Amino acid sequence: MGGDRMRRAPEIVEFYQSLMKRGEARQTGSRGARASGGGSKAARSDLIGEITKNSPHLVANYSSRPNTVLQVQADVETQGDFVRTLAAEVRDATFSTIEDVVAFVAWLDEELSFLVDEQAVLKHFDWPEKRADALRDAAARYQGLLQLEKQIASFVDDLALHRDAALGKMYSLFEKTERSVFKFLQERDTADAKINILSRYKEQDIPIKLACVNLAKQYMMRVVSELDALSANNTEKSKEAALFKRLKEQNKEVLLHQGVRFAFRVHQFAGGFTSESLAAFDELRRRHADGTH
């Protein structure tokens, strides 16, 4: 459990900046009308007319579903207290974590499923549609992040792949995650400012960030493995052409910088590294020290 705890690692930032200073690093890349409470036949007739006006999709299906409008009318007349109670819950709910939002939306959807046609019925009440939709959107985006987290957490480096393909695969997966998380946070903050969906919670609480740190560990270990392979067969160095030696050293330098840049980027994104990822980074830094002597 302790290995999963993240902490800031200033040594990663310092090492990255030192490479940059030496010039060795490169940039990579609608509310409807309220229902009438009257019970007369005329009022019911008006209500049916209002339902068909506010629910055109029901009118289109009316000939094949003659009882649908009557069922909606029945819900509007009998479920008013139920809907108003749910509306108050939506307006007044506060959340300390995004998981609370997900749980609330699941509960709300289950409650609303008792209505014969949610959209058609709710149009006749003072329903907080914008806030309910924003809650559903936030829950859906977060669940999308959880699916992405599962994809990253289950990722295993395929050593049979060429290093460029393997490193590129990990880099693309991280970039996709980074974009998704930033978009989620931006939309969360925008919605929060408008309709107070969430109280602020730590960005480190987003579990996908830990998965990214573990992905960085795999990336760095692959770089270390490739650096070791390039450094092998030192006994044959004298037989190598000068040009080949120079190309090999340049290749090692590029690989090292790729590893350091990726480590730095994930560290800044996640807000820290685990002890296991720091150990992988130390191995990477050691290869740099060996190469400068």
TrEMBL record:
Residues 23-42 are annotated as: Disordered. One of its GO terms (biological process) is chloroplast relocation. It comes from the Eukaryota. Keywords: Coiled coil. One of its GO terms (cellular component) is chloroplast outer membrane. This is Uncharacterized protein. The gene is gb05389.
